C-alpha cells in the first residue's frame, strides 16, 4: 500500500489545510483505518520521507465511520503508533467524504 501526500493549494497554514481537506475524494465503500495507520508508521514518519527527528510526530486521522477493512488490526496499530510516541488526533466526518 502506498499513499501520496502533499498540499497543492498554494495558500498558507490553516487555509491550506482546509483546502486540502475539501479536495479529499471518496474512493470506495470501505474505511481502511488500519491501512492508514500502517502507512503512517511505515512510510510517513521516517527520515527518508522528510520526518524531522526533533519535531514530535502527530497524525490526523480522518474517518467517515467504523473501520471495515482489516478492522482487527486498527487497535493494535493505534497502540503501536502510541508506543512509538506518535500523537494521533481523530476527526470524524458525519458524512462520507466525496
Helix content: 25-40%
**Mean pLDDT figure:** 77
**Beta strands, count:** 2
Q: Spell the H/E element sequence.
A: HHEHE
Strand order of the largest sheet: 1-2
Structural class: alpha+beta
Q: Based on CA inertia axes, which overall geometry fits?
A: globular
What oligomeric state best describes the polypeptide chains here? single chain
Largest sheet, if any? 2 strands, parallel
Uncertain stretches: 1-5
Number of helices: 3
- Report the end-to-end length measured between terminal Cα atoms: 21 Å
Strand content: 5-15%
| Integer-rounded radius of gyration | 14 Å
Gist?
This protein is an alpha+beta fold and about 100 residues long. The chain has helices spanning about 15-20, 35-45, 75-85, and strands spanning about 60-65, 85-90.
Please explain how this structure is put together.
There is one protein chain. The chain has a two-stranded parallel sheet. It has a domain of 65 residues. Helix content is 33%, strand content 12%. With 98 residues, the protein is an alpha+beta fold. The chain starts with 12 loop residues before the first helix and ends in a 6-residue tail after the last strand. Helix 2 packs parallel to helix 3.
Amino acid at each position: 500500500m502506498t499513499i501520496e501526500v502533499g498540499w497543492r493549494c498554494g495558500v498558507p497554514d490553516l487555509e491550506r489545510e482546509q483546502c486540502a481537506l475539501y479536495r479529499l475524494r471518496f474512493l470506495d465503500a470501505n474505511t481502511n483505518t488500519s491501512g492508514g495507520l500502517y502507512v503512517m508508521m511505515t512510510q510517513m514518519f521516517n527520515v527518508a520521507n522528510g520526518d524531522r527527528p526533533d519535531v514530535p510526530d502527530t497524525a490526523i486521522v480522518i474517518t467517515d465511520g467504523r473501520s471495515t477493512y482489516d478492522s482487527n488490526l486498527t487497535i493494535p496499530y493505534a497502540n503501536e503508533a502510541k508506543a512509538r510516541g506518535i500523537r494521533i488526533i481523530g476527526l470524524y466526518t458525519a458524512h462520507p467524504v466525496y
